[in-house]
Amino acid sequence: MRKYIPLFLFILLISTHELILAQTNDAQLWIGYEMDKKVIKRTKTHLKYQVRFTDNYTRFDYAFFDFGIDYSLHDNISISTAYVINMKNDRELSWLLRNQWYGNIQFEQKLGKFKISNREQVQTDLEDDIEAGGNWFYRNKTALQYKLNKKLTPYIQIEGYMRIGERPPSEDVLYRTRYHAGVKYRYNKRNDLTMSFLYQRQIRRNQPDHIYSIILNWSHSAK
Q1: What is the CA radius of gyration of the chain?
Q2: What is the pTM of this model?
Q3: What is the CATH code of the structural domain delimited by 26-222?
Q4: Among 68, 107, 122, 133, which is 20 to 30 Å from 100 by CA?
C-alpha cells in the first residue's frame, strides 16, 4: 500500500494544479462618478466614469467614459442610448482603446417603500473584441430597493448577459452573471453616495472567472 502513496500524492498535486488553472478568483475595487443634467422636458444627458483596480486591488486595470442621453417616456418607463470609450490595461500591449454603443429601456414600479425595476439592454461587444470581430450582447438587470428613511436606501440586484447569435462551445447560455447588494446614501438633494458589493461569474477563454468587488460611486444631478 505504501508504494502507491507517492503516486496518489502526485495525482492529487496535478489535479489541484489543474483546478487552480481552470478558474480565476480576484478581489477588485471599482470607483465611479456619474453626472446628469436636464436639457429639455423629460430629457437628460449623462456622463459616467469608472476606474477598476484588479489583482487584489493592486493593479489599475480598466476605465471607461460613458456619454449618453436619457428620455422619460412615462413616469415608470425610460429609454437611454450612449457611446462608451473603454480603456483596458493589457499587460503586453499597454493600454487598449475600445469603442462601444448601447441602447436600453427601463421599467420601474413603486410599491410603498419598495421599488422594483427592470432594464433591458442591447450593446455591442466589448470583451475580446479583437478576437470576436464584433458581437452583440443582451443584458437583463432586475433590482429591488427599499427606502429605509430619507437618507438610506438599501438594494439588491441581479444581472445576466447573453450573447446574441452563435456563441463559442465553451460558453454558457449566460455569458456573465452579476449579483449586487449595497446601500445608497442621499447626501443632499443633488448628490448620492453608494457603497456596494458585487459578485461576478463568467466564462472567458474556457476559464471561469470569479470576481468579488467593492464598488464606491458618487452620483450628481447638475442644475
Answers
A1: 21
A2: 0.83
A3: 2.40.160.40
A4: 107
